[in-house]
Amino acid sequence: MRTSTNRSASCVTIARACLPRPGREAPVPEAAALVTHRGGCHCGAIAFEVDAPARVTVSECNCSICRMSGYLHLIVPRARFRLLRGADALSEYTFNTGTARHLFCRRCGVKSFYVPRSNPEGYSVNVRCLDQSTLEHIDIEPAKGPAFAG
Fold first, then answer.
1. Helix, strand, or coil (residue 103)
2. How do the domains of the chain map onto residue ranges?
3. pTM given for the model
4. Pairing of β 101-105 and β 90-93
5. d(CA 131, CA 49)
């Protein structure tokens, strides 16, 4: 797997390109077939699957919570996310507007996915919590916290 970072892109452009409007699915290029990626928390209490291309573009937000946790956002529609186990192991944290539902494992504290403020009908998956064997390439785009609205 190869990663790259594009530090010159506009954060507003990235936010608009990466974040579908509520009720809309994220655009997937015609040639990009969806792959089922598995992921979860550190202790294994949380496990999930997400359908996304093998080559993904993720957003690196610089807001306080994302920066402190090292979160890399892969935004997916609700229909492409499946929680396999651990609903009872999730703890929720909200702040500011209370729209974003930050979900953490009660046991190990890892935030592997959450419901973002920018897309409350979908999920933001931390690409760092996915099994890397199904990812061919990760392109990391910077996004400024207030413009990103994750």
1. strand
2. 2-148
3. 0.76
4. antiparallel
5. 10
Cα-Cα-Cα-Cα torsion 12, 18, 24, 25, nearest 10 degrees, comes to 170
Domain 2-148 has CATH 2.170.150.70: yes
| Alpha-carbon gap, residue 38 to 82, rounded angstroms | 10
Q: Which amino acid is at 22?
A: P
Q: Could you give the CA distance from residue 58 to residue 132 in angstroms, rounded to a whole number?
A: 14
Residue corresponding to tokens 């402190």: 68
pLDDT digits 0-9 by tens, 25-49: 455 555 579 999 999 999 999 999 9
Per-residue pLDDT of 122-133, as tens digits, reads 999 999 999 999
Pairing of strands 90-93, 81-85: unpaired
